[in-house]
Amino acid sequence: MTRKETLDAGLAFVLILLIIALALKSHLLVAVAALAVLVCMTVPRLFTPWAFLWFALSRILGAVMSRVILAAIYFLVVTPVAVVRRAAGKDPMLRKRWKQADGSVFADRHHTFGPEDIEHPY
Predict the structure, then answer these.
(1) How is 79-102 classified by DSSP, letter by letter?
(2) Which of 12, 15, 39, 47 is the most exposed place for a label (fewest CB within 10 A)?
(3) Which positions, given as ranges, span the membrane (predicted)?
């Protein structure tokens, strides 16, 4: 662990103590948090075990929550939009034309490419 990581973990510990102190209305926890800030600023190496646990927890939460958030977006946004579009009869990929056509279903553009197309391709 680097000094900055242990310092960050120590300050996170202090913040957690202060939030608990606010919730429980405990003056004792505020004093413990003040002492923890003093220790964190002077000897941050003492928070190395806490920093190891804190960053391990953050890696686990990061791995799990990213998948949970992506799954929630997929099932709460993408799937309902697809169901509504399918119910409305939308076919943006022209799949029905692909199945019915004998030849190509690609659109002919009849476009001659010039130098301006290369200068601004998008």
Answers:
(1) HHHHHHHHHHT--TT-HHHHHH-S
(2) 15
(3) 6-24
Q: Per-residue pLDDT tens for 16-33?
A: 999 999 999 999 999 999
Tell how far CA 22 is from the center of its chain: 29
Q: What is the pTM of this model?
A: 0.57
| 11/33 Cα distance (integer angstroms) | 9
Q: Is 25 left (phi over 0), alpha (psi -120 to 50) or beta?
A: left
Q: In this structure, which amino acid lies at residue 60?
A: I
Torsion sign, CA atoms 75, 80, 85, 88: positive
